Amino acid sequence: MAEKPLFLVGCGSDDHRITKNQDNGSGKTKPLLLAGNIISKEHSPVAHSDGDAAYHAIINALLLAIGERDIGYYFPDTDPKYSGISSEKMLKQVMGFVEKKGYTVNNVTVMITAKEPKIGPHVEKMKLSISKALDIGEAYVGVGATRGEGSGNDDAGIHVVAMVSLKSFD
Length: 170
Hints:
Blueprint: E1 7-20, E2 32-34, E3 37-40, E4 43-45, H1 53-65, H2 71-74, H3 87-100, E5 103-114, H4 123-134, E6 141-146, E7 157-168
Helix pairs in contact: 1-3
């Protein structure tokens, strides 16, 4: 049997269509969340969960780094019990999987592409939230944002890619 690696690396992504928030008369709308922060109350992700694409991309990167399946396997959008679930709650559960395998997060990088709303003004608070959620220093969290000009992508969406590095604590 092969020796347990000292480091693992994972890459994950997530995409959501974004709509303009409209009050359906109930007074409740779903805000656009990224890394647990409300980025916009005027925009809403089309999602079964809370639609936090930043945490979803990180979850995918963590799961794939430890050789597991993706977020949809563990939190299927066909299961009503995950309707509206907090992505932070899912992230905590996945961190339990990572720790059970004997690893901790070394660093994480997140790149967000969205034409609307502007993400740049929210980068620092996202870094702080991610560092707290993963129990690592802010210096080990990178968050970037781009509008994807000239990409030809639909304006009504958000795309997030995350890379994680894990280190063994055994």
